[in-house]
Write a structure and sequence with these properties.
Number of domains of chain A: 3
Shape of chain A: globular
CATH topology of the largest domain in chain A: Aldehyde Ferredoxin Oxidoreductase,  A, domain 1
CATH topology of the largest domain in chain B: Alpha-Beta Plaits
Order of helices and strands of chain B: EHEEHEEHEEHEHH
Strand order of the largest sheet of chain A: 2-1-6-3-4-5
Shape of chain B: globular
Largest sheet of chain B: 2 strands, antiparallel
CATH class of the largest domain in chain B: Alpha Beta
Number of helices of chain A: 25
CATH class of the largest domain in chain A: Alpha Beta
CATH architecture of the largest domain in chain B: 2-Layer Sandwich
Helix content of chain B: 25-40%
Number of strands of chain A: 17
Helix content of chain A: 25-40%
Distance between the termini of chain B: 43 Å
Oligomer: heterodimer
Number of helices of chain B: 6
Strand order of the largest sheet of chain B: 1-8
Structural class of chain A: alpha+beta
CATH superfamily of the largest domain in chain A: Aldehyde ferredoxin oxidoreductase, N-terminal domain
Number of strands of chain B: 8
CATH architecture of the largest domain in chain A: 4-Layer Sandwich
Radius of gyration of chain B: 18 Å
Chain lengths: ~625, ~160
Amino acid sequence: MSWTKKILRVNLTTGSCTPEALNMDWARQYIGQRGLATKYLTEEIDPKVDPLSPDNKMIFATGPLTGTGASTSARYSVITKGALTGAISCSNSGGYFGNELKNAGWDMVIVEGKSPKPVYLYICNDVAELRDAAEIWGTSTWNTEEWIKKTHQDPVMRVASVGIAAENGVLYSAIVNDLHRAAGRSGVGTVMASKNLKAIGVRGTLGVGVNDPEAFMKAASAAKKVLADNAVTGVGLPTHGTQILMNVINEIGALPTRNAEDVQFENAGDISAEAMRETRRDGTTNLVANQACFGCTIACGRVSRIDQTHYTVVNRPEYWGASGGLEYEAAWALGAATGIKDLEALTYANFICNEQAIDPITFGATLGAAMELYDQGVITDEDTGGVALNMGSAEALTTMVELTGKGEGFGAVLGLGSKRLCEKYGHPELSMSVKGLEFPAYDPRGIQGIGLNYATSNRGACHVRGYTVASEVLGIPEKTDPLVTEGKAGLVKAFQDATAAVDSAGICLFTTFAWSLEDIAPQVDAACEGEWTVDSMLEAGERIWNMERKFNLAAGFTGKDDTLPRRILKDAAKTGPAKGLVSSLDKMLPEYYELRGWSADGVPSGETLSRLGL
Amino acid sequence: MQKALVLDAGKCTGCKQCELACSFEHEGIFNVSRSRIRVFIFEHEARFVPYTCTQCDQAWCMQVCPVGAITSDAATGVKSVNAATCVGCKVCTIACPFGTINYNAITGKVEKCDLCGGDPACARECPTGAITFIDSNLAGYEKMQDWAHKTDTAPQAAS
């Protein structure tokens, strides 16, 4: 406890589902979820494997706190070699699916091989079977979830599935569970579809036990109080969701706008949390409610309704119901990155991203790059099938998100992601990506530390690998100046290592607006056997980071890939507090390597590896 | 004083901390499939609705039980199932108009909310105040107060 100590190994080639005992030596070193599953993956696959070949594997993994009474105990992750990036990939999701998988008695499900025909995996406690998915192949995640629940006559089953985007080869397809929660980034859904695995439907009734119930409840209750009493987790996130950041980040001049041509968006207010609460012409508001994931006492999730008179949904009642609304990263990508201010169009595009399981960050960023190339005349109407792809066009967004899911017309090109798209049109420098993954809603010219994190993040440019924005903008745990580079190497390393531990524990990173490892370690310690302290979790975090790095180096990445797009390094911010600044990555990277115990070209030294037991 | 659980769907976020707490209190592990309180999530309306036994005074389950396994505590009003007496006939599950007493195939007995002996874990762990445990005579007090405020038209008339 609180591991189930059981793994389900599913071989799609042979059609077998086999239980295995969890390697407890590894659990003690890698905690669970991100860390433990990455250990399994890196032990079992060739780092050079083609991500879409049957030899790649994917792991659905819960953490030790998943399914317990700890706040935010919803989390599970999907670990694989990313389809978009070719780097180690770990995408984390909430909702209710992770708890159900743990309750069925499995710490993780390892999926290997490729099924000869479309199948879905049905799990009910000890029973695990592959079933024919012919009737749901080619349909959306929304239809798939409904069909599986009906087929099994079980309304409380939980389903994680891919939509048509993954089937059509969109390289940044997500896995969506509970209609609008997603393991979103780097193409984990594309890997799943390449294996002819449409979905996992799971029902678990076995329960999740903890090692020391009394100590656990005491630690969990104290930690919940910390969340409730904190201004961000107790008020800001439940009221406004992550979208509370739109105006904040715009004001400090770090909102990448129009493919990062600018760092401020004049229409940020129109697509902000505040706008979602304004009364529309139909007399209602975009935001309907906030929804919690399983066990979460923060409840930041947005649930929205599209204005029924909006052009996207006229006479389309299937899109009139409430569904997953805009989170900050999606609102930024679909809006600011493309210069689009139509909140309802963004909400519609977000619905389609959920319905067909598309990563809205990469989609929006890719569309922004394509729009810049269209405005320059590099991409023409002939390429787009006659769709005017001007920067700022809401019609272009809502048309292209549908075409991308279907893999039709110019949507098939957008489905490649910005790196391949920009290379195709001879302008690789216009892809706002690192290691093939588009960076999200924070511009490294206005927030220097986040640039170092993007450059060194093991899954490619990503905010949730080391969210220094917490310190540089929000002052958590203490305020640092976003415009300077001094001290940022240490800050990035500290955030990255702590985050790797949090991601491996089964809880949500958003708790860390209020919690430090001082709040988390006692919960893990009471839930699990063995002794878990702040130090042992931090050490596990650093071990996990270096393990991921080792995999990427073996996969063919080098220190040269720890960089940022030329625009971010050369073209100064035009407005705002960061006006005149570029990212000074070169001032931070050598110090970061040194702090990590890596060579000048970014390779972990033998001493570092042996210190961490690697 | 009898106390009652007051459920306010308007404050519920669907987090299921109540279900976690209920199962932990009664089973010693976290298992929402064994919870005696349930939160129903109506996805397309974005409504999250907690629901459990209201401890009816003239309880249908109690009246119909052929072996007298369900008893009422005169002081607290709680209707409890005596597991040693229950024969698992499930007639109470048919009689209950609300579906809040349920059969457990593992134990072969029925289960229902017993208010945790006077300190319901669900109310204790609810983070939003959607579940509270208060004087049963005042169960509707806040709702009345809200509506009373709406009927007071004097401020609008004056403005």
